[in-house]
Amino acid sequence: MQESGAALRTTIAPAAPAVALGDVTIAFRLGGNAVYTAVEQASLSVADGEFVAIVGPTGCGKSTLLNVAAGLLAPSAGTAAIFGHPLAGLNRQAGYLFQAEALFPWKTARENVAIGLEVAGTSRAEAQRRAEDWLGRVGLNAFGGRYPHMLSGGQRKRVGLAQVLIRDPKILLMDEPFGPLDAQTRQIMGNLLLDLWTADRKAVLFVTHDLEEAIALSDRVVIMSAGPAARIIGDWPVRLPRPRDIAEVKLDAAFHALHREIWNTLKEEVLKGYAQTGGG
Amino acid sequence: MSRVTLLSLQVLVAVVAIAAWHVLTTVPILGVTVLPPFFFSTPADVFGRVVQWFVEGSIWRHLWITLVEAMLAFVIGSVAGVLIGFWFARQPLIAAVFDPYVKMMNALPRVVLAPIFALWLGLGIWSKVALGVTLVFFIVFFNVYQGVKEVSPTVLANARMLGMNERQLMRHVYWPSALSWMFSSLHTSVGFAVVGAVVGEYLGSAAGLGYIIQQAEGVFDVAGVFAGMFVLAAFVILIDAVVSLVEKRLLVWRPVAAETRT
Fold it and tell me: Which residues span the domain enclosing A9?
């Protein structure tokens, strides 16, 4: 049944992938003539409606790659295309959920969620009404009037999710969005994300260092090597049935088999990454 | 510590200090008055003078003049500081060109400007306002500049990804950030506005708290000097309380009062 659902989608979906990165290399100029190559010749494509997770050791340039997909960073070499069109400037089709605090601290939760619509020309009243609706969807009905500092880390992430999703982007880019949260909250946020995504399947590119989280959430897991000059070294489809519950899917035998298989590849890179960054 | 305990301790400090002052100026110890009243006055004389001013009503005019000068200095200095701070922060080239001059002017002790302002603007309120403006402007200017420069890059990237154009970035990101920095320096800038007014009056005027103190000093009226200082202190505390109220209202989104740069 799951298979037929996926097949149906592919027939509707346009042929061009939502995100296509071709041989992307990203280098930064350090002091003097030194050049630091963060990512080398990474190719990656995300089909419309597909949930792809990028996993790699700390400091391997996963976020850098995501910034290229967002248009926040131009690659030094290679191509980035969004739905078949080369990306120039910001990726207007994408919503980006950041790892660090990105809410406007001087706006209430409701204003934070509404702002994306307001700047696009929606009337304030209408934007606030829809923001209220979205706050409800992320379980924050009673918190619209609070400022970010009055919310917990998990609640702020919920606001961030609503802030991004209210604009209905075709592509969702997520940079370790649940990184700073505790284990239980991560699980709850993971399930919330899956619920929202199931309701309206967007292409998702989800960066994480947590392999379990990646397998539990995604359709495909992409592994990056340790930096510098990180490459994409593996690509595994995740054939676990949906809808999934993050906590339950982790008890599945197929989950364990896949985890073990991917981990064998990832382990070496993690150790290399540690050696290079001194464990930091 | 509870509020009551804190307040009683604060009052205790004042009581002890005033009692010591009273004893040392009025009770001879081993036949010697440690602090001669001619130089140090006595709490009773000072208190009597303050009461006399308020009963006669002569003090109100001076308070009013000082208040008007301070308010004008604050408003003009803040508006100029916000506008120019914003402009410099958004135009790095302008900021770089003017950088040494801004530093030079900020390093200049403003007191030396007072006679010039008196010469240019006369002995009325405007020479005092000008002095206050030179003090307030730099505080607000540096804070606004910093506020615009130090917008979190993540918040900025988020704003862009949410579809904001330059004008909207200005309104929803740079402006609130700059204002929050300015508000966090409200206490300092309001305080300096008062300092500018009083120092200006002290150096040459016909009214104001600084004028009262200066007049008393001229005739060795120590009680008058101290009384002027006490009225000034009470005046500043009152203004500070008003600023705290305003601040609480405006910075409701802030977790804790951020540090102030001066």
Answer: 2-93+169-277
Q: Provide, as residue numbers in chain B, all residues whose Cβ is less than 8 Å from the Cβ of A163.
A: 162
Shortest alpha-carbon distance between residue B13 and chain A (Å): 37
Q: Which residue of B has its CA nearest to A100?
A: B154
Q: Is the peptide bond between B176 and the residue preceding it cis, with omega within 30 degrees of 0?
A: no
The predicted-structure confidence for B20-62, as pLDDT tens digits, reads as follows 999 998 888 888 888 888 888 899 999 999 999 999 988 999 9
Among A77-81, B52-56, B134-138, B248-252, the range scoring the smallest mean pLDDT is: B248-252
Rounded CA separation B31/B235 (Å): 39
Q: Are residues A12 and A151 in the same domain?
A: no
Phi and psi torsions of A251, nearest 5° = -95, -10
Give the C-alpha separation, B35 to A59, whole Å: 70
The structural architecture, per CATH, of the domain B41-250 is Orthogonal Bundle (1.10)
Supply the CATH number for residue A17's domain: 3.40.50.300
Mean pLDDT of chain A: 87
Name the β-bridge partners of A213: none
ipTM score assigned to the predicted complex:
0.85
CB of A9 less than 8 A from some CB of B? no
Q: In terms of Cα–Cα distance, which of B106, B104, B122 is closest to B114?
A: B122
> Which positions in chain B touch A98 (Cβ < 8 Å)?
154, 157-158
Do A63 and A158 share a structural domain?
A: no
Contact B162 A116 (CB under 8 A): yes
Residue A122 and residue B184 in contact, taking contact as beta carbons nearer than 8 Å = no
A107 lies within 8 A of chain B by CB: yes
Range A243-256 burial, b when 16+ CB lie within 10 A, else e = ebebeebbebeebe
Assess whether A85 and A202 both reside in one domain: yes
Q: Is the minimum CB–CB distance between A143 and chain B shorter than 8 Å?
A: no
**Distance from the A174 Cα atom to the nearest Cα atom in chain B, whole angstroms:** 12
The verdict on a CB contact (< 8 Å) between B252 and A147 is yes
Residue A2 has pLDDT above 80, yes or no: no
> B252 touching A, CB under 8 A?
yes
Q: Would you call B163 an interface residue with chain A, using a CB distance cutoff of 8 Å?
A: yes
